[in-house]
Structures are given as C-alpha cells and as structure tokens.
Design brief:
The chain is of the alpha/beta class. The chain contains 17 helices and 9 strands. The relative contact order is 0.08. Bound molecules: S-adenosylmethionine (SAM). Keywords: Methyltransferase, S-adenosyl-L-methionine, Transferase.
Length: 373
C-alpha cells in the first residue's frame, strides 16, 4: 500500500514535469528544430492535428460513400470531368473531393486521371464499413453539441430513434427494425469470420444466438459447421425478417426462431452454446447482468456462453473502444463499451464458473470471451 502511494507520487511528478515541458512554446520551437527531436515533434504535431481535424476527414469519407466515388473508381480510372458528371457535382466540387480523398489515401492520382487508393480499396473489401459510414450522419448530428449530449446523459437524438430498442426495450415495429437489422446484417461478416476462426463451434451440438438479428452470424456458423442445430432469439419484428433469410438460405429445417424480449420472456432451453454477438455493450449494467443471469439459467449443464463485441481498453485500439463506441452508445441512449476485465467480473456475478479471453484476429472490431456455466 505504502509502495503504491509512493509509485503514484513519482508518476504524478513525472507527468507534471512532462506536461509542463510539452506545453512550453520554447520547448516546442526547440524540439521542432533540433535534429534528434524533430521526427518526434513532427509525429506529435500530426497526431494533434488529426485530433483537431478528424471530423473533416470523416466527412470526406462520408461524401465518398454517399456519392459512390469509390465504387466508380473501382470500375477503372476516371478523369475529374467524368467523376464530376457521374457524381452530379460541379467540376470544382469533384476536384476538391478528389484531392481531399487523395490526402486520406481513399483515391490516388494516376496520369491525368484518378484511381482507387489503398484505403479506398480496403474499405470496398468490407462492405459493412460502407454501411456503417452511411448511417453516421445520425451520430454526427447528435455529436454537433457533445457537451449537451453528455449533460443530458445520452439518447434523445437521431441515433436513438434509429436504434429504438435501446430506449424502448422489447419494442420495435417492422418498419423500425428494418434499417438497423439490415445494417447489422451487412456489418456481420467482419465479426462472424473472426469469431468462427477463433472459437471451435464444432464441439457444440446446439447453438442459440441471443439478439441474433437477421441471422447472418448463424448462417456463417452453419456454413462452417454442418451438423450444429441453430436457434435464434430476438425481438418478434426482427425474427420475422430472420425467418425469410433462413428460408432463402435453405436452412429453415435446421433452425428454431423465437421472438420475444430477452429481459423478460423465457429464453429457449436445451442449448449447449449461447452466443451474444454485439449485444451486451448495448445495455446498461443492470440489464446486462440480468441478461447474463437469464442466459446462465437457460443454458444446459456444462454449456457455454460466447460473447463477441468490440471492448474498451483493448491494447492498441483504445480510441475505438472508449472513443468511438463510448460516444456512439451514449448517443444511442443505452449501454457502454466494457473492458474484458469488467465483462468477466459481470459473468462471475451472473453465476458463471469461469471465463477466459479467446484471441481474435482483429481485436479492434471484435474481442471474444467464453464462459463456462
Ligand atoms: C447491435 S444488434 C446485434 C445483432 C447481431 N447479433 C449482430 O451482431 O449483427 C442487437 C440485437 O439485439 C436485439 N435486441 C435488443 N434488445 C432486445 C431485447 N430486449 N430482446 C430481444 N432482442 C433484443 C436487437 O433487435 C438486435 O437485433
């Protein structure tokens, strides 16, 4: 205890000294000119500038997606005139967008025309990201006054109207759920591939996906693990959409779909694996613990729960967890990103015997925890 206080004291003094130095205009001038510190000073200035200007980068990206610029250049090189005509922009507007997008490596100049850039190509490889960006105008509107959003405790804006279940648990008409369910289904391949690569689903006979949306995750599991029986639980209006998808995929005979509110209706029993994919972080602590307790109660003896979602305090991806998802969920009106340690503590409280982190390929978008009943 005494040692901890002493270490904190040393750390506090070091941070104070460092911050005084970094804030000093004299030191900043020196660091930018001195050959040994110049590269560091430039890197820090760039990081700081990105913090200041990040919202303009996001809006350039939004314009690329909304106008279909990336799809157009994926078809082949175009000159600025052709881009302007296809995007229905004045030539000067098209050139401004192309130059901004080039600075972000979304596009790049080639000869007298333009082609897809490295970031643009990677984005097109993940269709779900494009769908996420396309709905960001809702979050952007809610974040126009971030302090007001923080003061009112979140919700009450455009994003919470989109994700209606967040503020009106268990509700949602067919029209309400259509756009968010489609968005979730489009972004699911990113997550499903990681979860299925990381966890041995073949050791289970019956898998229940709670909050399973339109069933994109279960269909990905079915494609890799031929013999497993599939169950999906979600709000009734979402289940109606899922039913059509399973029919189209020829998987109806293998699948049991149940509609209800997972915080109050009975959860289906007899499954040896329950999955919660991008669900827990949507809910405030009391609901999240209740959901875990209810899953614990519904699982067969010896069964497991697999949680997959982006998490807070993920080493190397901190801004994604506490930055992006922290504000996203605040605007949505419920939930919070949690660290793996906090989720494991909640699993413990809910009665699970033990839990462990399962390593995934891209922890920025998906971390996984498995818990034994
Ligand atoms: C963020 S989406 C995730 C969907 C899917 N697991 C995925 O990763 O694509 C959360 C899902 O939980 C469902 N959900 C939210 N609240 C619910 C409740 N109280 N009862 C049942 N399902 C609920 C939503 O309808 C939605 O399909």
């Amino acid at each position: 205890m005494i040692l901890a206080v002493h270490t904190d004291d040393i750390k506090r003094r070091w941070i104070g000294w460092r911050n005084r130095l970094l804030a000093s205009p004299r030191f900043q001038r020196f660091a930018a000119r001195f050959p040994l510190t110049r590269p560091i000073a430039h890197r820090r200035a760039r990081t700081l500038f990105d913090l200041v200007a990040g919202f303009t980068y996001s809006q350039i990206l939004a314009a690329c997606i909304e106008t279909g610029l990336l799809d157009l250049l994926a078809q082949g090189p175009r000159d600025a005139g052709a881009v302007a005509e296809r995007l229905d922009l004045p030539l000067a507007g098209a050139e401004r967008l192309l130059r901004g997008a080039a600075a972000l490596r979304l596009v790049e100049p080639l000869g007298t025309g333009w082609v897809l850039g490295s970031n643009g190509a990677a984005l097109l490889g993940n269709r779900g990201i494009g769908e996420m960006i396309a709905h960001h105008h809702l979050l952007y509107a809610d974040l126009a006054d971030p302090v007001a959003l923080l003061r009112r405790g979140g919700g009450g804006g455009a994003l919470s109207a989109h994700w209606r279940y967040a503020e009106a648990a268990g509700q949602g008409s067919a029209a309400d759920v259509a756009s968010y369910s489609a968005l979730m289904a489009a972004s699911q391949p990113l997550i499903a591939a990681q979860a299925i690569d990381a966890y041995p689903f073949a050791r289970h006979r019956r898998v229940l996906d709670v909050g399973g949306g339109e069933g994109a995750f279960l269909r990905a599991v079915a494609a890799r693990v031929p013999d497993v029986a599939l169950g999906l639980f979600d709000l009734p209006a979402v289940v109606a959409r899922a039913r059509a998808r399973f029919e189209e995929a020829g998987l109806s005979a293998r699948t049991t779909l149940v509609g209800g509110d997972f915080l109050s209706d009975p959860l289906p029993e007899g499954y040896d694996l329950v999955t919660l994919i991008r669900v827990l972080h949507d809910h405030d602590d009391a609901s999240a613990i209740l959901l875990l307790q209810r899953i614990h109660g519904a699982l067969a003896a010896g069964g497991r729960l697999l949680i997959v979602e982006p998490m807070a305090e993920t080493p190397g991806s901190e801004p994604a967890g506490d930055g992006y998802f922290g504000l996203y969920l605040l605007a949505m009106g419920s939930g919070r990103p949690r660290s793996a340690a906090v989720i494991r503590q909640m699993l413990d409280t809910a009665g699970f015997r033990r839990s462990r982190i399962v390593r995934t390929a891209m922890p920025l978008t998906a971390r996984a925890i498995v818990a034994d009943r």
